Give the backbone structure.
Amino acid sequence: MTQRLPLIIFAIVMAVIPFIPGIPPFWIVLLDNIGLAALVAMGLVLLTGVGGLTSFGQAAFCGFGAYTTAVLTTAYGVSPWLTLPLSLLVSGIAAVLLGIVTVRLSGHYLPLGTIAWGIGLFYLFSKLEFLGRNDGISGIPPLSIGGFRMLDPGTIYFAIWIAVLLSALLTMNLLDSRTGRAIRALRRGHIAGEAFGVQTPRAKLLVFIYAAVLAGLSGWLYAHFQRAANPTPFGAHAGIEYLFIAVVGGAGYVWGAVLGAGIVVILKEILQSYLPYIFGGQSQLETIVFGILLVVLLQLAPTGVWPWLMSKLPLKPARKIPDTSLEPPGRVRAPSTPAALLQVDKARKQFGGVIAVNDVSFDVGAHEIVALIGPNGAGKSTTFNLITGVLTSTSGAISVLGNKVDNAPPQEVVKLGVSRTFQHVKLVPDMTVLENVAIGAHLRGHAGAISSMFRLDRADEARLLAEAARQIERVGLGDQIDQLAGSLSLGQQRIVEIARALCVDPLLLLLDEPAAGLRHMEKQRLAALLRQLRDGGMSVLLVEHDMGFVMDLADRIVVLDFGTKIAEGTPAAIKTNPDVIKAYLGATA
Amino acid sequence: MNTTIMLFLLQDGITNGAIYALLGLALVLVFAVTRVILIPQGEFVTFGALSYAMLATGQVPGTARLAVAMGVVAFGLDLYAARRSLRIKLVVRSVLLNIVLPVAILALTYALAGPKTPIAVNIALSLLIVAAIGLFLYRIAFQPLAHTSVLVLLIASVGCHLALQGLGLVFFGAEGLRGPALSNAAFTVGPLRFTGQSIAVYGLTIAFIIALWLFFGFTLMGKALRATAVNRLGARLVGIRTTLSGQIAFLLASVIGAISGILIVPITTLYYDTGFLIGLKGFIAAIIGGLVSYPLTAVAALVVGSVEAFSSFYASNFKEVIVFTLILPVLVLRSLAAPAVEEEKD
């Protein structure tokens, strides 16, 4: 409940404001505009700040919402409340169509693409006959409940701010859930999430639609607030302004959207009303100052005002300690222990003329620790990527429990009970250790976006977090459970990755240089943990450069050199193998 | 379809397309070197064009004074950045570049501006003014952000666009301007009439494409610029001054923008805010070219120009819609071919 307290206070404050005696009606109009902008910016927070997808085209989605209700209420006399779901639906469908095209694009193509279709849609709005061309549509009926018609800014104020508060609540609920973690992991690249079963393109499309629906809601409210819709507020500059609002407020924070909307709307108002007095009647001066302020702000505070404000407040987020006594979430697969877990048969990977992995064959049985060693560039990590589906092999066959996986995507491989860590740590630095590890349990939960938004996922969520907490305890990081992953040492981050991989409840654990960056004692603890896992029925395939660690731990060793397997056997046999010595120390040794 | 109409439209499309190609090239150049998606490219176009048009009437354009003001800010930033290790050589260099240069341009403009000034002098003055603005724009807005993400740079770029466009209104007013043609020569081939102006457009576009290709492919400086684009840190470690690379990129982009503006202002009336749309069409070409390939960008620009010409004839209401949705099929193709490479962000 302590999490909700600020929200309730904020809601009460907002509810009281219109009843303050003597408050200028103009202030209420400003607050209405702030609420409308905050809704769009909130979508952008999720899309851009959290998901890492930049859109300059959100204003166009407002247009879809506004024009849908404008056409239906004026031309067909449909009740405004009936057009609400339709407005959201139309924005959502537009988002699906544009999203399918754009969200798979990486980096800078996305913002550029959104600018282009933002402008294209603006011209479409201003040219279509049934949308009233440049004049738009006027005479839109006001919202009404029974005989109460929301005609003036002071009454629709409540509709707008109820929408803002509900959206903020739903958005925060969504972010604090299984789906939310998948969304928050998007910005750091897709490989880590996919290795634990996250369907990245689907998650991206989801946030894209979510942001568009919020924009559509804002557009619907706008149409009934202004009682008219014309193309200007849905053009390219409006789209740019919404992004600006999100960045000013703090693109990663839901409340940053509200704060940013407040700052920008009020600032614009001040600039528009006072600049002409200072500089004499020149128009457009506010654009100049606005543009300059934008650049200055980015140089001084690229993360926005909200996080800066929060760091000034003495509030600390409540510790989230999951109840580890809960039942573990369901297993992904039926337990079975066949003779060979993993069979790699003449796997080959070519990058152009380079053969990174050259017809390598080996297998890993049940209850076994196998080490994959070799000098740098031997193809060890590439072999890992072939097994886990990050790369597809050029030829050869790889199978897990008898299922061929050499062309399977990572999300399918993990379902078979294969989980991994990465040579270059892939955690989300601004998420806590607990949240990072819980991504590992992604496939063991079932709650979707909608149920998360309405908090129907709590039982499922509690089980996932309990499992994550148990695995963190198991690897010995219980004290760091609610620290941000980015604040840990590199060695500890590797251990967090192991905990995340254990959350899959794997049969086979693939560890890419787990001991790098660990101190001696930590290595011994890691070795003990891996032995314990093996004795508990798990198999481990690890790549490691620390020979002492490998020789002590591994049951069997496979040696690669320049992509080719040169030896395989027990640690004792490998130590004396002349080919291995030659590969590591050179021909004359 | 009437063949003559088709030829006319095609000619119109190619002339416009050549301008878009020039802008597309500049955008690719700036993006490749600095990772900045240069929205204010359109303002370079209008500043160049309208400065030229104002000079032609004998007035001194406000852009010359803007260059001085930006130079002073740039000088202040230089001093602030070097406050811990101020050396005479550094200060002198900064004064020369940021104060003396724009003041000299302003003085030169005042000295030379007049109703009888030859066209060539006016062109040279406009180019100098816009080049200085481009140079200082990088120093003021983008150099302090050089290490940040493409997104932050993009938003800063939008901020620059807003500020410069607003200044454009202050300098040139809301009325459109038209400049005198570079040459009045003209000849006809079949039904088509070629003016000296359109020949200049074609010639300069081709010259720039070849020059950029030679510069990036075969000179040390060009390769250094490309290296900066791929990895700033790596480039610095091997001794490339990444700041210089950024300055050169912005200098080239502003000059190309101004030239494009001067080329079109005799053909169509330009307003203070026309540049944004023209620049965006250059973008479409640049995106189709994948923001990396100069020849592909040039070809794409010709396609954009032709599509625009044909749609303005057959569906003039939906001209902009058609041009801007042209990008969608390209994005679809790119997304289908998108390689599954991991990007490390932040």
